[in-house]
Amino acid sequence: DxxxxxxxxxxxxxxxxxxSLKCEQHMGHRxxxxxxQKAKKPPELMFVYSYEKLSINESVPxxxxxxxxxxxxxxLHLHALQPEDSALYLCASSPLPGVEKLFFGSGxxxxxx
Amino acid sequence: xxxxxxxxxxxxxxxxASLELRCNYSYGATPYLFWYVQxxxxxxxxxxxxxxxxxxxxxxxxxxxxxxxxxxxxNLRKPSVHxxxxxxYFCAVAAYGNKLVFGAGTIxxxxx
Lengths: 113, 112
Description:
The complex is a heterodimer. Chain A is mostly beta strands. Chain A is globular, with a radius of gyration of 13 Å. Chain A contains no helices and eleven strands. In chain A, the strands form two sheets. In chain A, strands 2, 4, 5, 6, 9, 10 and 11 form a seven-stranded mixed sheet that branches. In chain A, strands 1-3-8-7 form a four-stranded antiparallel sheet, with no helix packed on it. Chain B is mainly β. Chain B has strands spanning about 5, 10-15, 20, 25, 35-40, 45-50, 55-60, 65-70, 75-80, 85-95, 100, 105-110. In chain B, strands 2, 5, 6, 10, 11 and 12 form a six-stranded mixed sheet that branches. A four-stranded antiparallel sheet of chain B has the order 3-9-8-7, with no helix packed on it. A two-stranded antiparallel ribbon of chain B has the order 1-4. Chain B starts with a strand and ends with a strand. The mean pLDDT of chain B is about 95. The interface of A and B includes residues 50 and 107 of A.
């Protein structure tokens, strides 16, 4: 299995909702990443988990809350989002911490109404 | 700070024609450089990467890129473009730690 699987593929939520994005990999990778990509823009790093511990938080607002319950799973909990948070959220993983070999999922397209 | 410039927002080429996508970077040392491709609504796929050694790097799908230190460039090339190559292409540089900094992207259109 050489895939990074993200669910759901599409999500529409209101500003008062709480939702979660899920990312899974079974490649034994020990680093996982969340990127945010707004329309017609490049991806921007949000969080990095290394060995299940948060190692990088790129000053992301607290309405985004990451969680890494185990080495295969990465969640992004969403609460009280704003319409400007609408974007494609990409998960990635790498065998070891470091960007030399990133594997990206297909993303979750999030719309905040 | 590290930065990546892709000067062409859109490029249109005819199927079968050659392709060159430009990328310039700003970095204090020899960087790790990457090219990724993204189809609409999809994740990114790594085409090729340069860390050190031979400055001409071969990648997947018939792509290659050349690292030119004197020009701070890492241009992507393909001798003959196929319609399936239509996508958005991102050049990226590895910043300190676990961070990729992406260029703004170049959208490739292929006309038949």
